[in-house]
Structure formats: structure tokens, C-alpha cells
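User: Can you predict the 3D structure of C2 domain-containing protein? Sequence below.
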Amino acid sequence: MYSPNPMYCGRNCGKLQSLQMKYPGQKGEKDPTVPGLLRVKLWLGLQSNEDHWQVMQKEGELAVFAETYENQVSILGNWTNKGPLMTRPKFSDQQGKIKLLKEKFVPPPGWRWEGEWYINPELSMLYDKDAGHSKFIDDVYECQMRLPGTNWVESTRPWSNVKGDPSPSKGEMELPAGWVWEDEWQIDLGRAVDEDGFEYCVESTMGGWGPAERRYHLCRRRRWVRSRRLVENVKQKKEKEKTLQAATEGWEYAPLFNMKFHHIERRMDLVRRRRWHRKMVQTEKGKPCFFSMQEKENSDDEDEESQLAAPRMFIVFKQSYKYQLRAYIYQARDILAMDDSGTSDPYAHVSFLTQSQRTENIKKSLCPTWDQTLIFGEIEIHGDPRNIEAQPPDIYIELFDHDTFGEPEFLGRARAHPMVKLDPSDARSPVLQWYEITRGKDQGGELLAAFELFLMSGKDLPFMPPKRGSLYSVPNGIRPVMQRTAIEVLCWGVRNMKSYQLSSVTSPSIEFEVSGNVVQSDVIKSTKRNPNFTSPSYFFDVMLPKEELYMPPMNIRVRDHRQFGRKPIVGLHVLKSLEKFRIDPVMQGDGDRDEGGRGIVNGPGGEHVVDMPVDADQPLQPK
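Assistant: Sure. Here are the predicted C-alpha cells for C2 domain-containing protein:
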């Protein structure tokens, strides 16, 4: 809410912010994933204060356009605006409810036209489904059919997409410009399908696909997938979009007016539309910009809804800037366990504006260390760089558990802001921070990461981080300083173990995990006879961060060794920090021994000091 008094003005009034969308209804409560992200600037105020809203738009020109949609239908392959299928006016609003003829638009008082009507396609229609991705998976479905009691043969529509629309075969599918294939076509077996990848149903148009074949099933299909990687730059992509825009002539196609529109015409499309704009310029301040539409002069039968039409307002940016984002994903701790083994195979998916990348998979770990740098090149952002520095866009990091079969399981999400550097020679260095991971209302651990956003102003950017194979690692100066650390664990035994899955815990063992290093204890053969371990001392020799802030936790898991090789986890405990157990080793030197040759004991002080005699036969003498 806007107020001329800054003390009463809303905190986010007129400021650019990111809003997470969620699914409506009960699906939003059960599904924690984000279907979309909006980057918006909201301002709510009186019409008399509209000048203040316009003054805030310093990054671009606030333009007002009259808008109408031209609608057509296809009859016997010919496009026309007449006929029984034409359920919308020839020119209407976006929803087709209000009749908006171009010649009936009259500028309201205090406004005038600037230029003529022109076609302005919806920009979102010009983006393919792979827009914003550096890697993408193409898929196509092989369809077969049969009559009752006969064998499977090729369907009348042998290849289709997931919706059943005709599609080129996997051999005819062309590789888009600027992409390269990463592998060959493969059958997707990671779904609810049989051993050959097929799923079955009675009729393909009705749906209801299942993995088990029945005699009454007449249709089946299987999914073929192939991965491709982007190698083109943003400039080439822009030229591709401009060519696509010129080829489509601004038309958007759909099977029916109430269905989703797309920019490429398909066989089953029966309707189409395109958007017309005409710019208006204000001549008197404070005048409203609503149109008064009249179909006939001196007519009183028009509905009030059809008499008023609001224009569209756009911010036209004069210049855009290119940035490079470097995401330093180091490690996570105490994440959720999704597998039956009590661990996860996590990877991080980083999203920034219209681009996204992911890290490698870490096998069976609740404290994964990726030590990986993701580089987002040539990100186009509109607006003043100084405003971007003050309010940088949000970065969303989503963690998933990778499964060989089936969809990845969502582990949680974290949000971060980058350090913006308008000058690449800026000597500041980002600091790794712990970001809280949440899964809905639940806590999902913490992520240790840092982010840098460089303005590509023509100057040389800092050198690329060092490579580890084909991946970039976190550079020195940002990664934690590591030191060789010895961890000694004294583990005597187990007590009071509760039953698990209706069975008593009789043969347990304990696993200690620190920063991916695992030490396993001996197996107790029978807790009823002897609940203690034969060897109570265990030793780690690991590299751990020197600073307490980056110290990883220790995961302690108890497994019960049962028949048929089953080893379920029956207990879990996490020591969030090992710092309180850390002691500095005593260096051997002249000052390490007293005059009597007795060693100085390094440990917490007590009320008594015990002299250790040189002769082992002498008794201890407390002082």
C-alpha cells in the first residue's frame, strides 16, 4: 500500500520481489514443489498518487497500449472469422468476452494515439519447452494397437507425444540449432511399465495407462528418451526467436478457444488468434486511461461490462545488461533420508531467473560434499545495475534424491542472494554460508554455499575455478581451510534397544559417518548374551574444516543384522557439531615434560592431580 508519508508506506510497495507459486487446494498441501516463480513489482495506491508510481519507473519507459485480439476459426482448412464454430467476436479481449473492434477505440480525455495498430505476439509463446535449460531430454512415444485375439501391430498414429498428438518418430526428430546429442535413444524403464517399457490401456484417447497387460487392452505405448546439451550463446538464441516470430506472423493456435494456445500450428488446431497493440501517450496528468466503448451511437442497450476496457501497461527497457552467475555449492548436512537404507542420493538443482543447472549425484549420504561450481553464462537482466546490486534476484536451490527407477524425490528448498559485482576487479570474496533447507513446513537440513553475480561490462572476468574432471570445483579462498584431523570413538555397546518391525534387535552394529567417511563397528552376535562390542575403540583419519562454522556433523546409525542379508537401520542420531569434542594435540618438545620426566596430560582439569610414577610397581599418590 502506497502512502506519501514514508512512515506509512508499505515495506514492499513498488519494489521488485520474487513470489513463489503453489498448487491450489489440497494438492498444494501435499505437493511441496513450486510450479512457478513470479518476479513482480506491486503498487497499490490512490489514482491521485499515480504520478508517484510513474516516478518510480526509472529503469524504463512506462508505456500504455490499447489491446485487442483478432480471432479466427478453421473450416475445411481455410481460416475465417465467420461460421458456426466462431464463438468469439472477430476482435475481442483475451478471454473473448468483450467485443473490441479496432475502429471503435477512442482515446480517453487527456490521451492521444502514437502510431498505428501493429501485431505484438505474446512473448511467452515464442519460447520452446527447452527455454532456459542447458540440458534437456527429448521424448517420444511408440504406439501400438491390436484387435481382440490378435497380435500387437503398429498403430494408425505410430508416434505421439505424451498427450497423444502426432509426433515425428525418433529417427525423424531433428536436433535444434545450437544443441548437441549426449547419448542415443533409450527406452524409459524408470516408470510404471513392464520389462519392455510398455504401458497399456483400453483406448488411448481415454487414458488410464497401466503397467500390466490384460486381454481387454487394445492399446500400448512406450517412451523413448534422448538427452541433448546446449552449446549456443544468448545472441544466437535471440536471432532464433526473432526468426520464429516473423514466421508465425503473430498467430497463436489451439484446438478450441478455451484451451491453451501455442505458436506452432498442429493438425488438430481449429482456432487461432493474434494480439494487436496501439500505443497511447498522456497529454494531461491525472487523467484516467479507460476506454469508453460504444458499438452503436446513442444506444442504451449495451451492458456496462462491454462499454469499459482497460489498456495494458508495459515497462519498456531501453537497455539490458548481461551477467554471469557463479554458484559455489560446497556441501549440505543433516538432510532428509529417503531410501530404505536410511540415506539419500542427493543432488542440488540451482535456478536463477530463466536458467537452471544441477550438481552431480552423491551416493548414500546425509552430509554430501559436492565441492562444485555452477557457471551461468550471459544472463540477460533488464534494469539499472545499481538497482540489481541493491535488490538482486533470488536464487533457489532445490535438493532431490536421485532414484534409478522413478522420479527424483524432493528433499527440500533453500533461497539465497548473490554478491553482485559491477566491476569484475572487485576484490571482495564471497563467504560460504549455511542456508536453511525446508520441505513444506518441515526442516530439511542446511546447505553450505556462496554465490557471485558479475556484470559483463567488457572487462575480463576472474579466472575460471579449477577443474575436477569435467566439473568446476570451489576455488581456493572460498572453500574452507582443511586440516588433518584424528577422531577417536569409544563405543562399548548398546542398551535397551526397542524392537523394529515386530522383531527384537539382537545383532546390531554401528556406523559412524563424518564428511563421507564411514567406520563400522563389529557385529554383536547376541545382545542377550553380551551387549558389548569386542573392540570398543575406533579411529578416523579425515580432513575436516579448521573453522567451527563449517564443521560437518557426525551421523551415527545402528543396523540390525537379520536373516537373508537384511540390515535395516533401527536407530539414528546426529551430532550436529564436533567442535565441542575438539582438543589441540600436545606437540612434543622441551616444555612438554617436567623435571621428573613425567608427561603433561592434555585434558580437562579436575580437583586432583595424579603423579604418574616412573616405576610401574609404585602405587598412585593423589595430591
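The first strand starts at residue 16 and ends at 20. The radius of gyration is 33 Å.
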